[in-house]
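Researcher: Predict the fold of TBC1 domain family member 19.
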Amino acid sequence: MEECAGLCGVGSSRGCRCRQQCQGPAEMAAAEGKPAPARGPAEKHVEADTAVRCCAGSGGIGSPMPPPHCSLQDLPVEMLVEIFAWVPGTDLPSLAQACTKFHHILHTDSIWRRRCREEYGVRENLQNLETIGMSYREVYAKVLHPYRHILGLWQLDTEHYRTLLNVVVDGLCITGWTYGPSLNTHEDGPLQFKPSFRIRLTERKSTTVECMEGLHIRPHKRHVQIQKDRFTLQCNKTDHQKDLTARLREELALVLRLGWEDRYQYDCLAYRRLYLPPSHLDDLIRPGLFQGIYDPFSLKIVMLSFHGNYARVTKITGVSNGMLEIHLICRIQLPDGEFFRNFNELSQVIQEIDEQVIREQQQQQQQQEDGIEESEGHGWQSPAQPSVGESGAAASEEQPVPFVLPVGTLTRDQNYPQTCRMCFYGVDTVISPVLAYPKRFPGVFILFDENHFGFIWLELKYFVLFVRVQNTFQNASLQRTDIKLESLKEDIKRFFKTSGWEKKLQNAVYSELSVFPLPSHPAVPPEHLKEPLVYMRKAQGSWEKRILKSLNSMCTELSIPLARKRPVGEQKELLNKWNEMGTDEPDLSHFRPVYAPKDFLEVLINLRNPNYENGDSPSFRTHLGLIQIPLKVKDIPELKELFVELGLTTGQLGIDDSTQVPPELFENEHVRIGQKVLAEQDSAAAQQYVRQGSPTALRAELWALILNISSQPEDILYYEQLKTNVIQHDLLVDSLIYKDVKLTASNDDYYFVFEDYLYQVLLCFSRDTSVLGHFAYNSASPPRSYIRGKLGIEEYAVFYPPNGVIPFHGFSMYVAPLCFLYNEPSKLYQIFREMYVRFFFRLHSISSHPSGIVSLCLLFETLLQTYLPQLFYHLREIGAQPLRISFKWMVRAFSGYLATDQLLLLWDRILGYNSLEILAVLAAAVFAFRAVNLMEVTSLAAAEDTCCHCSHLACDNAPSPPADPLVTWTLSWMLALLTSVVITLEMLPKFSAPQFPCKLVWESVETQQVIGAQHDSHQRELLAILHEAYEPR
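Model: Structure tokens for TBC1 domain family member 19 follow.
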């Protein structure tokens, strides 16, 4: 539906939308019925004799020719009432401000009665309103005008399942009618709807939205948020959740998974406006809505639209997983004046056309790549095929031919027409999460008459008959005479630029490219997209079994179920202390973390490639470190090329904004460019910008821009849904989250104050089924459980926890640093969720990805072995392998091991480079800084104690730096802040481990001059990025 609604639905739903947007504040106040300025008693009513006197001597009604100075004020009141009744209601407030006379006349209820009837279809008698003491002016100003955007045809905006909503003025109510598939059993009948909500026009004080769904005896309140072409509904009561779930189960005719129930059980639904396509003379038949039987459960509604040489049939209701495209220039000639009776003959004809179409599409794609202007349409065309402009007339003049389904074709409707007019080649493209790439199902499109068409899927040998929907819908037709098919592409581009959607689409595409892997060959199996190496997948599977075994044993030992529904009293208690959960002290003494980083490290140490020589005795192939996997990792030159912005010639925030450097040298200009980036709202520019660090005041907005996070009303409602699920259901992982927060963040000097936020975010995160989407590119798989008593039956399998992520010791530290940036729980949650599905999941799953924890460990050990061999060999000989010390740093992304300001600078670079490799480089830099001290230790405990205080790298036990104050500042900065990484690595090849801190020589004055001279070129680069129109990336 997206594509068809997008092409056919650009613009407003009503012709007066532009005028509504152009109103000033005073005009809107008058339209909403706000009081006018005070006036005398003589002005309260319009008298007929006064009106006559106003027109006397000025060329009134009886004047044969009005004098030149005659104005609209001189006309009689009766004529002005008739004239004003034809003026759109949104323009009447402007007339009311023209003069006192017009203001009095516009209080005449007959004017507003006609406006209500002409614009909104209100047909009620005035006496019905007078009985309750209301006027049509009040109805228009208080109800119809504020809710004008909600009228029309809407479609449920979900990822997979969709339905139809028709909002109309029904009597003295605005009623939303939902399409009920169970109410429609035959395609020839009109669509049957059931009431979903209503807004009474007779509310004098404040209008309320009443929900009419569920098992309640009487309607209850519902919350609605209306935008231009989108609105959301949230039911304020949730005790009809089972009814909503049952309705969806009835319509889908399958057992809902936990994810489906979580998405719908709160009755918070988002709708987007649906426009019916306009009709043109050259269309084969009038476009619009049709209904047909796809499956044995219910009818499905589709929309037929015409787009030049193509016609499209898009699903409006049901599971939206494809689109049917008809090639109008590929007409099929019927043999012997009747339809094919032999299915094999029909299949052969369609296959020939399909092969020709595929070849021409490939040729066109090649021509586009070579810069050759593509020809319009396909080269193949039947000799009898009319041109596009003549197709509509040709279809009406075409003589019908007998039609019988070919032998062997299945259908659920035997009452199809006995004659057909024309047949065309078509293809159904199905997109499914199960399929690695879209699948094509060619077939034949059969036009019977103005109200009937059908389609035969050759591969499925299945025929569906589509019948025109007889219902009429108000406010659903798109009337845009200024849009032409020839200029549609340019019109859409222009609309995107003027409306601001161009930048939003660019950010969305850039965000997707940053998350999902590059497209591979279509024949690649889905499991290879998750992880290409088989032994890695097996190791991850074995690790997941160990985790589940630990979780199940905990359930058995403690006699605790995986999930349970909280009693009503417990729900109220949790809701009351939602913002003070840190004060709760549950008994968690019997709970233990499912696993800790050191357990995960042992798994990685034992990881082996079965196709690689893995002898017990050392050889030249043996890796001296703990990781024995032959993966390709970057060396120093490649790291310098990757982190080029961290070099000495580029200014860095956290260094050049220190007290020793004047702010006008770098800081002021860097902040100004950051503000420019935020004003442009471009994700790519923001990502490039944060590579040099984010100003503290701008960091929160920059990160949200990079992650493409914007707090929309539906996002806040979605967070409230997750909160409601936490309150209603208790999961075993809740206790694991409580335990982890108590053991980690609550004992941290920086993060203990955010304990309540951590509980709120992590508990909601465990219920979020949208997190399951990241398993498409994650080597891990979500754990599955079964409903009690249905073990082993796949239909009753559910993901547990609902997000598929089992927390481990230290998991809460991924959230804690973000609490310094965001004080709104819903925004904090969105940022953390996006950070997790982009980066953090790779730190606790086994994969060969360059940012995966296996590659990070190997990169860390390779750097130390290559450039600090004496240090590495010494630690190895005393049994203090460096990876055993640094592994917990990298698994937590240094959260809890660096000071918060330094950690946020580190995460700036993670977002800027879209990579976690900088974690391994920083870990190696820490060992380089501690090299002299580490060469003196004799045990693992002593080595850990030397390296444990990463937040104070320039500590007292380090050797004293040279006396030069700039060098002193440089050493402290170089190793205490993230931007030290490449500088440290640049110096690594120049020294050996024991002499590093003492022999480091840095021409400080020249370095300062380089930084001051080069920062201008960097700013020009960023500005160039902003000023370019960002060609398609």
